[in-house]
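Same chain as my last thread, 455 residues:
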Amino acid sequence: KIYQEEDIVENVPARMRITYKIRDKVEDFINNFIILRDGTTKIEELEQYRESDNLSLMNMANAIIILRDYFVEKQEHIDLQLFVKFIFNKALFIYVSTDNTEDAFRLFTILNNRGIPLTNADILKSQNIGALKNDKEVTKYARIWEEIEGKHGDDFDRFLQFIRTILVQDKARTNLLEEFNDKIYYLKSPTKSKLKLGKETFELINRYNTIYEEIIDLQNDDLSNEFKNLVTVMKIGMRSDDWIPPIMHYYAKFGLNKIDTFLKCLEYKFTGDWVCGITPTARLEAMNNILKAIDNTDASNINRLLDNKKLFKIDETDFRGYIQGNVYGKQYCRYLLLKIECLLSDNTVHLSGYKYITVEHVLPQNPKANSQWRNDFNDEERQVWTNKLANLVLISQKKNSALGNLDFEEKKSIYLKKRIDAFHANKIFIEQNKKWNPATLEKRQKELVNLLIGN
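reply #2:
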């Protein structure tokens, strides 16, 4: 039995036989729906838990409802006492212990291959709770951790990796738990510790969660629309989130002071290296160098950081060459178009709310033989322009093959009447042009490339 009932005669107190130091919401659920008499009859509340993001709560609620429905339906044909006897005598809890955390984690993974996995974050939480001084602190910080974990969901380990990167400022070479133990806590050499287990860790994680909410989830009302729009397109279009630790660290040290300028420098460096094919390892090293530069900058001398040309330098010759070429099909194509939209917007509104974002050709890839496109472009010109930036636009819906082969006048009419929601900057350009031909594209290509260089 997981719950021991009170026995006044034998002086046995009521207590849970299993404690949930790292999953206190599970303990609350058991108290409210299993131990509490008639708790399993709270069907409406249990139905809500079936939709919970917490897998443990969802599975327990689901099990209670399914078992209850089954027994209600089959009650005349089931010996309930026999079933309870079977559970009490055949269902066993097995306690296994190991000498160290690493062995415990490996053993749990093997034994639990069909259950809910124990994550590195779970063990990290357990270590830090074990370092707290009293039950009051345990309750407080366990709840804070669970709230943060619930907010980030499956991305919680990713969030903790951001904090690891900010503290270590080097590429991760082992798993999250070992990185914290060996390079942050320095468990084998405590005098080198960058952070203490327990309260100090919980406070730091809580602080960076607030920072994440304010400048990545954009909940700080004092952020400019320019900042919000650039972060939004970076979150949507970037294939990597290695840029997030530097902006979080900057905000942690300097607040909003010149944060728009820093974000522009950071984004330009990250985008330039990505487009130019710099290796992921080298790109990560560049971000770590920015973290170190932030540490070495006084709040009174932020311009020294922002004016550090070596820190934010990209190869603009290569960058220009790549964005002038055929970009359709490249990983960075959609992002470049999103950034163009951001640069051409007046920032009076925050760009958001797009469920789908698709790259669409204006000049089709395979225009029909009798189309106006064949008159406006010869085969060589189509080869040159079809997959370049100038011929590509973003639409906020899934790809539409029927739209793709229409002539320009028909396509333009559909864009402008909002039957297809083209992005604002694209729509304005299309509206201002009566023709879509090589001359139009040459002019547009030059403008877009120059817009992306240096911005």
